[in-house]
Design brief:
Layout lengths: L1 H15 L3 E4 L8 H6 L2 H4 L9 E5 L8 E8 L8 E7 L6 E3 L5 E4 L10 E10 L10 E8 L13 E6 L7 E4 L17 E6 L4 E3 L5 E4 L11 E9 L9 E11 L7 E2 L3 E7 L7 E8 L9 E5 L8 E5 L5 E6 L10 E10 L13 E11 L6 E2 L3 E7 L7 E4 L2 E2 L8 E5 L9 E3 L5 E4 L10 E10 L6 E11 L7 E2 L4 E5 L7 E8 L11 E4 L9 E5 L4 E6 L11 E9 L7 E13 L5 E3 L13 H29 L42 H7 L28 H13 L50 H13 L6
Parallel strand pairs: 2-8, 9-15, 17-23, 25-32, 34-40
Antiparallel strand pairs: 1-3, 3-6, 4-7, 5-6, 7-8, 10-13, 11-14, 12-13, 14-15, 16-18, 18-21, 19-22, 20-21, 22-23, 24-27, 26-30, 28-31, 29-30, 31-32, 33-35, 35-38, 36-39, 37-38, 39-40, 40-41
């Protein structure tokens, strides 16, 4: 036990001997937490750096480097045997350390708003061997803030609005200034707000920056825009603090605090009596000092003299009141109207009801102007009835129109021919009685719409029109018939009294009270023991069975006559035939089949099975046909079994010419008359028959050049055609052969500028050289042409 305690004491002495410490320079007092961290017992770490935090003042403007602090180890006996090193953020560039003394200095001014602290690492090594005496440790240098940044309004200038007539203290908006200084140190970032311009209308809270109204009853119609200047000052607003400002543009929004007012109290208007309903008689306007929806005005005619004759609407464009005519005017009846019009706001604000009624009233007088008017019918339209097939000349009815003017002119009547193209009707021009002019048929046209024209005799230009509807009444002339051709079925297991079909009827006649049909069996079929007819009394009837046990093998179809009778006068009737088939059914009455052949089908083989069998047979037949067709196709040999394709061969040469100045790239002699160059062609190309193919064997006849005595191009072509027809070496396809020969014997002579037949040796083209550089190429071409195509003299 004693030995172990001695060993522990020795180890403690060895490790505790080399303790290091950071010496902090004079600075601001440490907080209680920092003091706790600098407790001597807590700062002593075995063989390690003691953690601490240095401070350096920002924006230091001194001439010497700013002293930060000192590093020291207990192993440093002051004999210069220990070297201190510094690493990390800003080491060497911003911070430097004296390797011998451990003093740390800041080489340049620092800005806390750019970087608030720096993390570095320090180590003590042997100055001779560079052997670490202590492990590397980390510490922090914090930049101490000073008040070097003024508050800033990052979102300014601001725009806000507040309703006019708002009470004092109404919230407008809130502004916020930001200070980049350290809010945790001193008052550098403590901002206080104040108003520099905008009083006494608005105020600002010094702490929150909330702007409120400071003056009551601010009227937008007096002043609408306000500009407020707000200041934010740090250091709590104390002397020496930095300040920033911003501008706030405040607009008073409109409220409905003004009623509409007429510019005058009396309006005088005039309107012709011939004006149509809906005509705009005139416009009046009440002005409202408000804007937007608060300035919208509603006009109303006050009940009285003119409320039933006139109405007033509001124009959405300019808020004018448009007086509209509601009913036709008559100067002879009333010559003037006087009434009042109210103008009020559409959207009222209850806060201002105490100010009085938000409306204004004006008087409107409208004088009716006399106009020579057309005749007026006693009714807006007429309706008349006439029986079809009525005799020609029967009077249907009459129309009446009169002149309401003081002159009371006579009226003449006529039918607008466009409304009665077939002249079914006629009208008495004086009395206005309408009569038939043709026999009418309701089944052809059931209703006629004609237009009657009334003309004022004193002024034929003035006419009026009225619509007359003539209904052609039906006469019972058609017999009723079945609505559709009915084909019913009855089950073989049908029971007695069973209704197997319901049917109805139709009639081309159209009685006023509607159709009423009755159904009964035919008297000829009164002894029918199979079926009968039952009338349901609602224009329908049914087929009822009289027996059971129908058999398709004995009788497949039954014909049942039915008598249909209408209720017109005179009574019309007809006999219809109902077809009934006997069918096989399920026990519940659902239809299976009505075909008689189905009786003889094999038992147990359904229709679906038969269809499937037939479909399989068809598929097999299609496969066999396709197989046989493919076999036959494989047996056929194609016409071309080799790789040689017997068709036109187009040989493409990608040779590019030299342009218009290249006069030596081709033989100019090929443009001349073949008679002149006959010897040259016979010498060079005597065995060359075709230019597009090279014959393998020279068994064909040599082609002969054109005879010098040829007189016509036709002979030349026929000669070449015969030679190619008998040429065995010619390929079995068409080829294009070009013959540069114009022919001869034309009265107009050659049209070529090159003169393919004769070249005039006396012609001298040297004058082309005198025409300038543009004709140099042309002169060269003609010079070469004379050289290749000499005339007879050469």
């Amino acid at each position: 036990m004693l030995t172990r305690n001695c060993l522990l004491l020795f180890l403690w002495f060895v490790f505790d001997k080399g303790s290091l410490s950071l010496v902090r320079p004079p600075g601001p007092p440490l907080s209680r937490s920092r003091l706790g961290k600098e407790n001597p017992r807590s700062l002593r770490v075995k063989r390690g750096w003691v953690w601490n935090q240095f401070f350096v003042l920002e924006e230091y403007m001194g001439s010497d480097p700013q002293y930060v602090g000192k590093l020291h180890t207990d192993l440093d006996k002051g004999e210069s045997e220990v070297k201190y090193t510094l690493m990390g953020e800003g080491a060497g560039s911003i911070f430097t350390i004296d390797a011998t003394t451990g003093d740390i200095h800041a080489l340049r001014s620092l800005d806390r708003e750019v970087k608030p602290y720096y993390t570095l690492r320090a180590q003590a090594v042997d100055i001779d061997t560079n052997r670490p005496l202590e492990p590397e440790s980390e510490f922090v240098i914090k930049v101490q803030d000073i008040n070097d940044n003024e508050p800033k309004f990052l979102e300014g200038p601001y725009t806000a609005s507040v309703p006019e007539m708002s009470p004092v203290g109404t919230y407008v908006m809130q502004v916020t200034a930001t200070d980049a200084d350290d809010p945790t140190y001193g008052n550098s970032a403590r901002v206080v707000y104040s108003i520099l311009h905008g009083q006494p209308y608005f105020s600002v809270d010094p702490k929150t920056g909330i702007i409120r109204t400071a003056l009551p009853n601010m009227d937008r119609e007096v002043k609408e825009q306000y500009q407020v200047l707000i200041q934010a000052k740090d250091m709590g607003g104390q002397l020496g603090g930095l300040a920033g400002t911003t501008t706030i543009n405040i607009t008073l929004s409109d409220v409905n605090d003004n009623p509409p007012r007429f510019s005058k109290s009396f309006f005088h208007l005039r309107v012709p009596e011939s004006s149509a309903v809906g005509f705009a008689v005139g416009r009046i306007k009440a002005h409202d000092l408000d804007i937007g929806k608060n300035a919208e005005v509603e006009y109303n005619v006050v009940p009285g003299d003119g409320d039933n004759m006139f109405d007033i609407l509001t124009s959405e464009h300019n808020q004018e009141g448009i007086i509209i005519l509601k009913r036709p005017l008559d100067y002879e009846t009333k010559k003037a109207y006087t009434f009042k019009v109210d103008a009020s706001n559409a959207h009222l604000d209850p806060r201002f009801h105490s100010l009085g009624a938000f409306k204004d009233t004006a008087t409107v007088k409208i004088n009716v102007l006399d106009v020579d008017e057309p005749p007026v019918f006693t009714k807006p339209s007429y309706e008349m009835d006439v029986y079809e097939d009525s005799p020609v000349g029967d009077i249907i009815g009459a129309v009446t129109a009169q002149d309401l003017d003081a002159s009371n002119s006579p009226v003449r009547y006529s039918i607008d021919w466009k409304s009665d193209l077939d002249s079914y009707f006629d009208i008495d021009p004086v009395e206005g009685t309408i009569s038939t002019n043709e026999l009418l048929d309701r089944e052809h046209i059931a209703q006629h719409n004609i237009t009657i024209v009334a003309t004022k005799l004193s002024n034929p230009v003035l006419t009026s029109r009225v619509a007359v509807t003539i209904h052609v009444l039906d006469v019972n002339e058609f017999s009723p018939e079945l609505a559709i051709p009915y084909e019913s079925f009855v089950c073989e297991n049908a029971k007695v009294g069973q209704v197997i079909q319901t049917f109805s009827a139709k009639d081309q006649d159209l009685p006023q009270n509607g159709h009423k049909f009755s159904f009964k069996p035919s008297e000829k079929d009164i002894n029918n023991k199979n079926f009968t007819i039952r009338d349901f009394g609602n224009n329908t009837a049914g087929i009822v069975t009289l027996q059971s046990g129908f058999r398709r093998r004995s009788q497949k179809i039954y014909f049942l006559p039915v008598v249909i009778q209408d209720s017109g006068y005179p009574v019309q009737s007809s006999t219809g035939i109902l077809i009934i088939r006997v069918c096989g059914c399920e026990s519940d009455g659902s239809l299976l089949t009505c075909s008689a052949e189905a009786i003889f089908l094999p038992v147990g083989l359904s229709t679906g099975a038969l269809i499937a069998i037939l479909l399989c047979i068809v598929i097999l037949l299609v496969i066999v046909v396709l197989y046989v067709g493919l076999r036959r196709q494989n047996k056929k040999e194609t016409l071309m079994t080799s790789k040689e394709d017997i068709r036109d061969n187009v040989i493409h040469y990608d040779d590019e010419g030299g342009g218009e100045e290249d006069t030596h790239a081709f033989d100019m002699g090929t443009l001349c008359n073949p008679k002149v160059i006959k010897e040259k062609l016979l010498k060079e190309n005597r065995d060359l028959f075709r230019r597009d193919v090279k014959p393998e064997t020279k068994t064909g006849k040599n082609q002969l050049p054109v005879s010098q005595d040829s007189a016509d191009i036709c002979n030349f072509i026929n000669q070449r055609l015969k030679e190619n027809d008998v040429d065995n070496s010619a390929p079995p396809y068409d080829s294009l052969a070009t013959y540069a020969y114009e022919g001869e014997g034309s009265v107009a002579e050659s049209l070529s500028s090159i003169e393919s037949l004769v070249v005039d040796t006396n012609e001298d083209y040297d004058y082309l050289n005198e025409w300038g550089p543009r004709f140099k190429t042309l002169a060269g071409i003609f010079g070469d042409l004379l050289q290749y195509c000499p005339g007879p003299a050469s």
